Amino acid sequence: MPAENAPAADNLDDDDYPAYTMGRAADVLGTTPAFLRAIGDAELITPLRSEGGHHRYSRRQLRIAARARELVDQGTPIEAACRIISLEDQLDDALRVNRDMHRRLGEGDTDT
Hints:
Blueprint: H1 8-11, E1 20-21, H2 22-29, H3 33-41, E2 48-49, E3 55-57, H4 59-73, H5 78-108
Antiparallel strand pairs: 1-3, 2-3
Helix pairs in contact: 4-5
GO molecular function: DNA binding
Domain HTH merR-type: 19-87
Protein name: MerR family transcriptional regulator
């Protein structure tokens, strides 16, 4: 069932449910709406839009934004921070695929 049609109780556990307005997301992160717009412009995250056209953020997006803020607070330019996070995600994906492949190959190896 898509998140937008899920019962309200199901949305509590859905990391991708767009529960936070831009203002609330900025408050939770201790940043500004301009920062959220900047990482959106850099295509690090793409907030959903409410029917009224307002940005809505999920918990998963807030975690990504928090990582970007951490890097920016350490002096990394925002564009570089977004690229670093993108590369970290690609590395995590590649490591996961590698682990899965080794696991599958190990299961099929009956000669040992």
